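user: Here is a favour to ask of a fellow structure person. I have my own habits and do not want them to colour yours. Could you put it straight underneath, so I can go through it closely?

assistant:
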Amino acid sequence: MKQVAQLPLMVQLPDDETFESYKGSDNAKVISLLKSFIKQENISPHGFYIFGGPSVGKSHLLHACSSFAAQQGKSSVCLSCAELISLSVEVLEGLEKIDFICLDDVHLIAGNKQWQQAIFDLYNRVLEQNNFIVITGNESVQKLTISLPDLVSRLAWGLIEQVRSLDDSEKASTLQYRAAQRGLILSDEAAKFLVNRLSRDMGSLIKTLDTLDKASIQEQRKITIPFIKDVLDIHSSQ
């Protein structure tokens, strides 16, 4: 695999955010296309834009792309616009030499003309180097409030797919998979309880699993519904 200089803005990839751990059956096509895109299987565009609402798993899929690229012996970097916009655009210099660039939440630069120009320039340099870029946003290209027409045109030029929200059973299945990756046993009943009684936001559910994991280790107890109620202070009247 190509060696890439460590950048201060590189995201530390979660070990459990892979294509295998993404359980949304409605998004099987998206995952298949992303894998083909990374393996460069009969796909000509060098850009891929995926969009969807909050907590549908866009960041998860980007992390999965980066991990999958590494498995293919390719260099990659995963970046978040939430962090980039507080930095100088110079941090993007030279990134076009990386095989796959994963850029999260492009909608966050909608009000920043300097960063819109910088992302557009990076996109062009990636094309010149014959490399690839995957970008996520919260809306379709047509509905993004990006004011730079050239960047909008670039986003619309490549592959485009929408990421659908997981249903409750898929969220429960995802929690069980992520728990198993940590060596935890989360029963069907406990998983359903978490989805039904807490926020259905997948990001919040994973954070709750983190909390339960730590509490389970500290107290040497299994993650049962009574244990969940004790740790999260969920009362029967709720």
In short: The mean pLDDT is 87. DSSP finds nine helices and five strands in the chain. The radius of gyration is 19 Å.
